[in-house]
Amino acid sequence: MGRCLPSRILSEQPLSLPLTHMIPVQERATAVSHSATSRHARELGDPVLADICMAIANDERRHELAYTRIVDEMWNLCACRTHL
Question: Is residue 28 part of a domain?
């Protein structure tokens, strides 16, 4: 675990749960939702909408991975300010 940096280096406000930990959760939820919409669109005969929704779902999965890595790095830099 990394050393805790002074708050003036990281920010004036402590990092909060919604800001840091909920973003990857929201990205996953959006990916799941768009994947389901894509599946339904394909079943109902709209391949264009299905492809668009799947592209969005894949993009949301990439966002989830990126935000998860950001939270991990924040934890490594300063676990005491990355609230659980």
Answer: yes
Q: Cβ distance 80 to 17 under 8 Å? A: no
37 within domain boundaries: yes
The number of beta carbons lying within 10 Å of the beta carbon of residue 63 is 17
Give the pLDDT score at 74: 78
The residues of the chain scoring below 70 in pLDDT are 1-20, 79-84
Percent helix, strand and coil across the chain, each to the nearest 5? 75, 0, 20
Residue 29 lies in a domain: yes
- What total number of domains does the chain contain? 1
